[in-house]
Amino acid sequence: MTSALAKKTLLASAISFSFLFPATGFSFLGNTSAIAQEANSSVVMTVPDFSKLVEETGKTVVSIETLKKAKKATRSRGQGVDPFEELRRFGFPLPFGPGFEGFGTPERRGQGSGFIISSDGYILTNHHVVAGADELTVHLTDKREFKAKVIGSDEKTDVAVIKVDAKNLPAVKIGKSDQVKVGEWVAAIGAPFGLENTVTQGIVSAKSRNLPDDQFVPFIQTDVAVNPGNSGGPLFNMKGEVIGINSQIFSTTGGFMGMSFAIPIDLAIQIKDQLIKNGKVSRGRIGVMMQPLTPELAKSFGLKDEKGALVVQLEENGPADKGKMKEGDVIIEFNGKPIIETIELSHAVAGAKPGEKVKVKVLREGKPVELTITIAEMPSNGKLNMKTQPMKSSVDRLGLSTRALTKEEAKKNTKGGIVVESAEGPAAEAGIQRGDIILSAGGKRVKSAEDLKKIVDSAKGSIPILVDRKGQRIFVPVPLKN
């Protein structure tokens, strides 16, 4: 009996072990302590303990309740008029009163998160959390509540600074987002759906992620669960340092789908400093329109690779124009920082101080040229006074039929150029269209059909052609037929 029981026990142990280590090739005769150490090490590496992090940082995270007060519609002719007012005056019964939602703005409440950055009550959050709010109430983890005021808010980066009248508050430790590594563990603390001090965890999925219509923020992408109410809350690294502000998610359903995006804390602190000091954010500009380089474009410009930002258009008398930059230049370095993609240049320029002189390195006809440009301030409306340039006609090796500008077109385009009447062959295959205005070819200005013909006749391989298409400029690489 004892022998049979021992055999059953051994068999059960073997089965249990096989479930723990299926098809690994481990043997019972091997070093089981080494196997156990490896297993324990694996568990520690892949499932970190966030309890200490939460214990130390949770009290620095706040919940923000917003209130937009109800507003009555103005009783004036035109917009805001109650179309049933005359019926009411004459006693006609209606199933709703003049205060129903259709004739005014109802009271609206919202929820967001934030985190304390100084013991005297300064708090960082998102612009979209506080935008348009008439009242802000901040809830701390110790159940205290404070009314808050907005110190400053920046829509372009979605960063806002608010303040409560309090002292000796627990503040976060600020990390460095430029030291974040893809794959490292991170945690978010916030108030999703109003559930205060909720903790979620994940890893950094990508860095410097560019989202549509967001040219000022190189987002940190994570797989940390973020939902409505998390906005404005902190993203922590495993040291308990804030490395980002949770700002938005990608979703086709309205709920979390595995991709969340945080504003890097390095950028947020720059914005915070300006908001506290000036109440607004000043951004630099050099006055250029850019186009990403493709392999075809790079080849047509005689470049080895597609690194850099291709200058398509210059602001007339703008900083780059005054600094002798030219259309067709490829910006490869700005203020000592290499430029690989156009968005990197946007971030670098926006972060530069107006009035500052910076060195800019460009490739011009394949050769490096160094320029000095004085940074100007970006207008509040973001619009630049871009140079506009016109056009003329003929059929050539590109397969183009062109014409001169009309008088009306010439008023808008004062530097010359030619209008595409029809496109076929190489030009059409490359994407040039009827109505395009050809401004330059191979880096040389085109003021007439004869100019274009001379440039094309002397070119080989492919040629980059700068066109203006309904006010937008792009370079089109056109392969040439022999």
What does the model show?
The structure is a single chain. With 482 residues, this protein is α+β, with helices and mostly antiparallel strands. Among the domains are: 173-278, Trypsin-like serine proteases (Thrombin, subunit H), CATH 2.40.10; 284-377, Pdz3 Domain, CATH 2.30.42; 394-479, PDZ domain (Pdz3 Domain, Roll), CATH 2.30.42.10. 22% of the residues lie in helices and 33% in strands. The chain contains twelve helices and 30 strands. Strands 24, 25, 26, 27, 28, 29 and 30 form a seven-stranded antiparallel beta sheet that branches. Strands 1-4-5-8-7-6 form a six-stranded antiparallel barrel. Strand 6 (135-139) and strand 7 (145-154) form a beta hairpin. The protein is elongated and about 80 Å long. The model is unreliable at 1-32, 75-79, 85-91 and 388-395 (pLDDT under 50).
Q: Under CATH, the topology of the domain at 173-278 is which?
A: Thrombin, subunit H
> Count of DSSP E strands?
30
Number of helices: 12
Q: What's the gyration radius in Å?
A: 31 Å
- Average pLDDT for all residues: 81
The residue fraction in helices comes out at 10-25%
What structural class do you assign from the helix and strand content? alpha+beta
- CATH level-two architecture of the domain at 173-278: Beta Barrel
Largest beta sheet, briefly? 7 strands, antiparallel
Specify the CATH class of the domain at 173-278.
Answer: Mainly Beta
User: What is the fourth-level CATH superfamily of the domain at 173-278?
Assistant: Trypsin-like serine proteases
Weakly predicted, low-confidence segments: 1-32, 75-79, 85-91, 388-395
Strand content: 25-35%
* Termini Cα gap: 95 Å
Please tell me what the overall shape is: elongated
